[in-house]
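Figure 3 (text version): structure tokens given as input.
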């Protein structure tokens, strides 16, 4: 089969990890007889440098014409001035909104061979296998009014946390469906003791749960969830939450897996179903790591497992996705590590070497 992929390498280590993802995809294509064609575009800081905006209309259109989007990372100190008119992150937000990618899946799985490379006690993280479903096109990120202004008594600013019933329902459905395909436990995370939008969220979760009698629904306040994530993380199966809560909780959850360099993500425009194709964008959850850029040290695994998610959700190629995940496990099992997950007695290698080894296992 033939698939068109939009490639947006972005800034910092983005292009380096993207190159390894392409390498692995080409190996998958050879072994399973698929043809992947790539359409490259600018996103983030590099787009600001080239075009004056973080995402051009042409690039957005190009992404819309493809079967899926693969994104490296955006941002860097060069574009960080808080007074700047355009910032790299705007490109990412415009893509999420423009492509209607409302469902962000962030799986956190602790691989047995990396259990000692985290800062948390092995006993606590043993067996952790959870997915955070983060709402991605609503809430504080996009709510209006959103502005800063001058008053007689100083400056003021406002952001708005707004959600419609439709937006809440569709993301909760993703959570319920995913839980149904896994261990059937869903934690709906809100701040219903304070926020009106959370009270609506919780009501809709209760209403929907009637259609999912096989899924055990639990409501959790976001502060309690933050605590439970480091106290007893292995109890979680699927967590579903609004945009900003999900942003914060997934950085926390990522530390369970040892390194941000290990975690992939999928941002989908629909409710994923086994064997069906859902349009989506795939990216590692780590940032552009500007201090690591250009040195061949960044861990490409998050980007490579993001490719596995792309194969699974957007191309309905489950076997190929598993082949990639298996190759990653094999290479780690053999003791190869990038700097971020390095431990004594292991073999430290660079970005390209890690990509070569994983691609090599596909042959
Ligand atoms: C993420 C990032 C982004 C977000 C930034 C870069 C805008 O932190 O994907 O988690 O806040 O959504
Ligand atoms: Mg974040």
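Below: residues designed for each position.
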């Amino acid at each position: 089969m033939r698939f068109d992929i939009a490639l947006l390498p972005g800034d910092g280590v983005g292009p380096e990890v993207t190159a390894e993802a392409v390498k692995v995809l080409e190996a998958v294509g050879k072994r399973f007889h698929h043809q992947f064609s790539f359409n490259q575009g600018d996103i983030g800081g590099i787009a600001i440098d080239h075009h004056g905006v973080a995402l051009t209309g042409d690039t957005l259109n190009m992404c819309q014409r493809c079967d899926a989007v693969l994104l490296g990372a955006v941002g860097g100190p060069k574009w960080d001035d808080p007074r700047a008119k355009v910032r790299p992150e705007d490109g990412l937000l415009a893509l999420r909104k423009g492509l209607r990618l409302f469902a962000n899946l962030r799986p956190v799985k602790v691989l047995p061979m990396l259990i000692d490379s985290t800062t948390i006690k092995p006993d606590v993280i043993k067996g952790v296998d959870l997915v955070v479903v983060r709402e991605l096109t609503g809430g504080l990120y996009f709510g209006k009014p959103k502005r800063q202004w001058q008053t007689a008594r100083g400056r003021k600013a406002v952001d708005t946390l707004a959600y419609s019933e439709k937006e809440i329902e569709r993301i909760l459905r993703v959570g319920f469906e995913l839980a149904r395909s896994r261990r059937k436990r869903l934690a709906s995370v809100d701040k219903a003791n304070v926020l009106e939008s959370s009270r609506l969220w919780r009501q809709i979760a209760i209403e929907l749960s009637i259609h999912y009698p096989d899924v055990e629904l639990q409501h959790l306040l976001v502060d309690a969830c933050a605590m439970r994530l480091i106290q007893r993380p292995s109890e979680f199966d699927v967590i579903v939450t609004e945009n900003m809560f999900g942003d914060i909780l997934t950085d926390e959850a990522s530390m369970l897996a040892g390194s941000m360099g290990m975690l992939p993500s999928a941002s989908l425009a629909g409710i994923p179903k086994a064997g069906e194709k859902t349009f989506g964008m795939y990216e590692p959850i780590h940032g552009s790591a500007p201090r690591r850029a250009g040195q061949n040290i960044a861990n490409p695994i998050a980007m490579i497992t993001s490719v596995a998610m792309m194969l699974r959700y957007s191309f309905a190629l489950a076997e190929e996705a598993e082949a990639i995940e298996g190759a990653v496990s094999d290479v780690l099992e053999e003791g190869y590590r990038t700097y971020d997950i390095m431990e004594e007695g292991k073999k430290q290698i660079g970005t390209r070497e890690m990509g070569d080894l994983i691609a090599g296992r596909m042959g």
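The longest strand covers residues 2-10.
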